[in-house]
Amino acid sequence: MTALSLGAPDGRLLRLAWPGRDGIAGALFVLPATLLLLAIILAPLLCLLVLSLTDYEIGALQIRWLGLGNFEKALSDPVFRRAMGNTLFYVALVLPGGVLLGLLVALLVHGRTRSRAFYEVAYFLPVTATLIAMAAVWQFLLHPKLGPVNGLLRAVGFPETAFISEPSLLIPTLAVIGLWNLIGFNMILFLAGLTAIPRDLYDAAEIDGAGGPIDRFLTVTWPQLAPTTMFVAVTTSITAFKVFDTVAVLTRGRDGSEVLLYAIYLEGFQYFKIGYSAALTVIFLAFMLAFSVFQAFQLDRRVHY
Amino acid sequence: MENSLELAGITKAFGRTGVLADIDLAVQPGEFLSLVGPSGCGKSTLLRIIAGLEHQDAGQVRIAGRVVDRLSPRARNIAMVFQNYALYPHMSASENIALPLKVDRLSLAERLPLLRYLSPRRPRIERDIVEEVGKVAEALQIEPLLARKPGQLSGGQRQRVALARAMVRQPSLFLMDEPLSNLDAQLRVHMRDELTDLHRRLGATFIYVTHDQIEAMTMSSRIAMLDGGQLAQIGSPAELYERPASLVVARFIGSPAINILPARLDASGSVLVGNLPAGLVVPGRIAGPVSLGLRPEHVRLHAVCERPMPMATIRRSEHHGADRLLHLDLVEDRKAGLIVRIPQDDSGRYQPGETYGIGFAPEKAHLFDGDGMRMAVTGTAPARIGAAA
User: Fold this and answer.
1) In which domain, by residue range, is A41 found?
2) Can you give the pLDDT at residue B29?
3) Of A121, A179, B250, B283, which alpha carbon lies 20 to 30 A from A142's?
4) Could you give the CA distance from residue B385 to residue B389 in angstroms, rounded to a whole number?
5) What homologous superfamily is domain B259-380 in, according to CATH?
């Protein structure tokens, strides 16, 4: 509102401002957005950066400047290194799985006519379910003695498997739950992409002889979905990097199942080492930024025509 | 020689909506046949049935004497050009043109990423394909564009790439679904010329769907007009223009559109416009309302009326280069308008506001009965309104 009233038609204020009337007016118009950006995004980031260079703890009487000490400590901390490794492993499972399964489900659902609405809702339900609550259900499903999954395995003749306590299975189990939660969302994005493919292209492919299912997919569907796929890959990797709730509820980080966000949570909100957890957050953000920028710049050139 | 294409009793409905009813059609080799009609008349559906993209509910399609009802589009040896060109946006122009040949000559495995490098014969086949693509590109003068993607081409250039993709397999039958309708007016006229030329050079059969009667009139050897899912008339452009089989055809063909005057058939078989005898005699028909059709160039304007004739006032005069179009309102019936085409005239006659008598040569008039079907005019009566003496 201030910007508008300053730029009023009589414009006395603006005329008085001699060096570059347009420049000042322009700056005034930009001011509100700039202030908001500073207050909401840049200032907290700056706070985070400053905190990450100190040993600040909640309730501490004095703050010491550590420089890069927190980062050095993090990189040599076996717990944090394990958390980083686990997170990357988790992303390596969820990213391809989420994209490919989302695409597969979308292709299958897209082929339905009357039952399509049902499948859309069915696959989308896990997205709307809170993972915290559903984790309890998963805990039951995967229970070594009582769970139906193990019941099924036993029936087929496999040995009983402790999905949530066997250390080597923890991250894959969490990844499966993460996929279950994510696929419906990716499916909706892929369905939107599929719907936008012009019918003409399929007709042309059929005339050209590329009408078989594999040819159709390779000639029309897959290339046409490239922009959607890129978007799905970026959002899926961000979601995967941010894995937290299943770890917090199902494993609480025991047996070496720490992930980045859970490590940050422990340091910051359990041990109150705000400075150290800020440093971890900076590392986390750097990861996400690098990953997203890589995807955006590398893939973008190849997917838009 | 066998017909290039034969349709027998083609019928198609989508759900409960009938689209095509019992279409019979035979197209000779080398013909340029246009399918025309207002939107929703079923012409595109008919083309898609010929292509094999849609299946008829009843009837038979024969291409070069062979029944193709159970064959895929690819096996029918046809090519199709789409309204939006339907080029694959991620492929360069040359890849687009090469695709039909690759699918034809390479197995699926030889076309898959990575796996294809295992095939020893693939490089040789691909060299041949590149050569053939080059030849087609040369014929259409698009060689400099081959490396570009469709997004980097103009509408006319995309059109040519789409044509090249259709030509490269040397099909005997070309199907075109309003291929020029996305081009601007000037380019459309130019491409009309090029298509006609291409048709002559290839000697192939063209089936061309359009809603633009000028395209159909200028390019085709024959026109088939569809209306409401039925074949309204088939014949040369001149036949459709000079002897339209029904009111619908008469109205659709010709620009500006034909003038239709309400008229009446009296008990003696004489045609009356207003209350004036039009000089046409149709014996043996039941008296009742009929329609009199007059092409704009066949209307004569009389400044001096030697006998009673319908009068009309000029509302507007349009300059069309060699011709002039006059828009007139009938004096007796303000709602009925009339368009008259006259040669350019410097004498200062035919100004807006002036009133003239309307006359015509009876042999140039078209007469349609109450159902809109053409009536044979058997004779002319001596008392002719406004007929040139």
Assistant:
1) 2-52
2) 93
3) A121
4) 10
5) Nucleic acid-binding proteins (2.40.50.140)
